[in-house]
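Structure ticket #2291
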Amino acid sequence: MENKCVWNKYSAAQLKELESFTKEYIDFISDCKTERECVEKIVNDIEKEGYVDINKAVKAGKKLKAGDKVYSVKMNKSIIMMNVGTDKLEDGVNILGAHIDSPRLDVKANPMYEDSGLAYLDTHYYGGIKKYQWVTIPLAIHGVVAKKDGTTVIINLGEEDTDPVFFISDLLIHLSQEQLEKKAAKVIEGEALDVIIGNKPIAKEEKKSSKNTKDKEDKEEKDAVKKSVLDILKKYYDIEEEDFLSAELEIVPAGRAREAGLDRSMVLGYGQDDRVCSFPSYKAMLKVKKVKRTAVCILTDKEEIGSVGATGMQSQLFENVMAELLNLCDDYSEIKLKRMLANSNMLSSDVSSAFDPSYASSFDKKNVAYLGRGLVLCKFTGSRGKSGSNDANAEYLGAIRSVFAKDDISFQLAELGKVDLGGGGTIAYMLAKYGMNVIDCGVAVLNMHAPYEATSKADIYETYRGYISFIKNM
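Resolution: structure written out below.
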């Protein structure tokens, strides 16, 4: 069965909406390259649409009713949105669940050093990457530095035209004979992903010459570039070297996402896994004003490293927030919470691999997603024998098909790649443990986990339409 190209089905009005929506999406992934930046942007947007921090309702002892909209933020890196419907919570809710973390380089706790007149930041890569893809490209630094006095300094360097950028060096081709004989996984090692941040030594002070001052100057000369960088950080950010101990700094590709192709049909940019699903998820929540079944949108952290930690999906974060919601809407009991979770339906809003003709042998052409053919349903992920996957049941797939038919949503069913080549995971199986219906549903991506990933504008728009349909009709 062949899926048709969705571009040709849109009316002039829909094409106009498509372009407007994807323009806003390009702005989103250009401005929000970390989990914290995503959460801050989303909170600003949803509060304008009437969403209120659930903690305010809890403290006020206020009961929620149909039409109320609340949200919960965890450590500024995960957010859950809730639109209360007219149906009883015990009968289940409709959930969209995506993640807002992306592969990157994290700055280590003791990162700064100097070698041969160059100042570096030592890094540890986060998530699955091809390390050789990160050398020689312009890089930016995003994040926060928490100081001992309780203040937090926000860092965002490398995005403006007037900002400096940073980079990781690579060996010149003229001397690369030995390097090129290595396997791709070893061409660039993890410990070699250190970011160059300076070359200019700190200016010397005029001093009277003596043996003692000469010895001291020789010693200072060894770290003169590092001292110069620290001097800049002190001057502009009031940061000391010790402050790196309590910092969260992420190294990401510098610059904005762009339209791609002569026809401007695609988006090329960093972090589309999984912000290409996060953006339409929260926008769909804003689009649907009133619902029968309560609608929930989970935008979580740490998926790229196994959904661990307090802000990841394996924590009690989701269950705790659902317990608070139930308590604010009804007389809380554990059995009601369990029923609500078991009776829920979820779209695990995550990306799938798009067919790449340049690497056709890695895909099953009958069971793979194609750019421009609509949103992607992935019945199972995992690897080799479906290990570690949530395998959605036939009845739920049939129900999803019925829902999408009501709004003429174009979709394709796909797997990640050939059976024995590997695989991947999402948060789907973590929600399925409650007994609810779950299936992966998102956008096809080329260059997944590369510094710059590619998607089709039509797929982004169709996924947005599909999420709206799910919230309204499921």
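Closing remark: The chain is about 30% helix and 25% strand.
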